[in-house]
Amino acid sequence: MSLLTFLTHFADPRIEDRPPPTLVSDCRAIAVVVDDDPGMRTLMTMSLEQVGYQVIAVACAADAITKAQLVGRLDLVVADLELHGVQGPAVVDALRAISGYMPVVYVSDYHEGLIGVADPIMRKPFLCGEWLRAVASVVGVLPKDKLLAA
């Protein structure tokens, strides 16, 4: 179910008699992508969906935190290092305060990352294969790989 479907469910009076849908499926791995570049956000969202993630894609830190509070659990965070005056690690710290520890991959337009950031940093632009290898390196196995192994 898309986030749009979830949000519009409450705005449509014709469907009040139905139980509210869940924001995400409990059986799928959940990733949040926080990037203010719509093209990169779409690319990362589509590639993560292809390997089995349910993706919550947002353009700013405030939206990421709001969605994380609704979902409660995150399995992966992808965050731009710079988000309109907020640094990616600060966003990740806030998300971890809500959801606990989860793997992180940072993305950046700049070749130099923040000093002290231990998580991988992918320099934009990148190839889809490189991107998915970076994700696999932090999560261990991609969700579709888990499904195939079961």
Structural class label: alpha/beta
- Identify the overall geometry: globular
Please name the CATH architecture: 3-Layer(aba) Sandwich
User: What fraction strand?
Assistant: 15-25%
Please indicate the count of domains: 1
Biggest sheet character: 5 strands, parallel
Low-pLDDT ranges: 1-26
CATH topology: Rossmann fold
- Measured distance between first and last alpha carbons: 24 Å
Work out the oligomeric state of the chains in this entry.
single chain
Description of the structure:
Strand 4 and strand 5 (86-87) form a beta hairpin. Residues 1-26 have low confidence and may be disordered. The protein has helices at 3-9, 38-50, 61-71, 88-99, 128-139, 143-149; strands at 30-34, 54-58, 76-80, 82-83, 86-87, 104-108, 121-123. The protein is globular, with a radius of gyration of 16 Å. By secondary structure, it is α/β, with parallel strands linked by helices. It is built from six helices and seven strands. The protein has a single domain, classed as Response regulator (Rossmann fold, 3-Layer(aba) Sandwich).
What would you say about this model in short?
Helices cover about 40% and strands about 20% of the residues. With about 150 residues, the protein is α/β, with parallel strands linked by helices.
Task: Describe the secondary-structure layout.
Elements: H1 3-9, E1 30-34, H2 38-50, E2 54-58, H3 61-71, E3 76-80, E4 82-83, E5 86-87, H4 88-99, E6 104-108, E7 121-123, H5 128-139, H6 143-149
Parallel strand pairs: 1-2, 1-3, 3-6, 6-7
Antiparallel strand pairs: 4-5
Helix pairs in contact: 3-4
